[in-house]
Amino acid sequence: MKDDTLVIGSRTFESRLLVGTGKYQDLKETDLAIQASGAQIVTVAIRRVNIGQHADQPNLLTILPSEKYTILPNTAGCFDAQSAIRTCMLARELLEGHNLVKLEVLGDEKTLYPNVTETLKAARTLIDEGFEIMVYTSDDPIVAQELESMGCVAIMPLGSLIGSGLGILNPHTLSIIKENAKVPVLVDAGVGTASDAAIAMELGCDGVLMNTAIAAAKNPVLMASAMKKAVEAGREAFLAGRMPRKYLASASSPETGYFFLNKS
To answer: What phi and psi values does residue 124 have, to the nearest 5 degrees?
Structure first.
């Protein structure tokens, strides 16, 4: 929609769908899916993907021109604050001063649930170092408020476990987080199909970040296109304002002003 932009920190975007770059068959499929998604923000796992730190390997940035995409380095694979901080520092060096990052500190390898304590610790240090932090966290409204109050530019609560495809399991807590937040709230993790993305947007969330839902689909490029449409439709539905829920039938046609056929 015109004039409905997403503002994150010092940057402004038109697309509210953010996508990842992992789990695709090759760079060609990655490129085609990202293009089909219409995303402007593309997140990259610095510890897992080459963006210049390995000169002898294919560089992901060859398909992500800076004039078209905003690279969002993330700290996927970090299980403590210090590892996350070092990863962000490396990303800033590789990307020549780029300071927008996605902070992700995990609790364990089985669930990939966020370690909130280490996340808070890393966020404080990185903000002091001049980073703009988009932060992956639990769907705890109090934690979300704390992260916002210390200066994170976007709060990214999980919809369900990373890579699970289970969708939005706790819509009420997401609604509370959004209601209290003054920065963008983006659902991160758990989306499995287009309807999940639409639900997140209908709740009022400002955007959705996904990777596996697209990359693990039978046709990733087609799913990317579906996700683009779902996010746009969900946003429009939220802005339009849904009808009140009712528990009695209500005819869609007026009950006054009938005209009758003359049977004579």
So the answer is: -60, -45
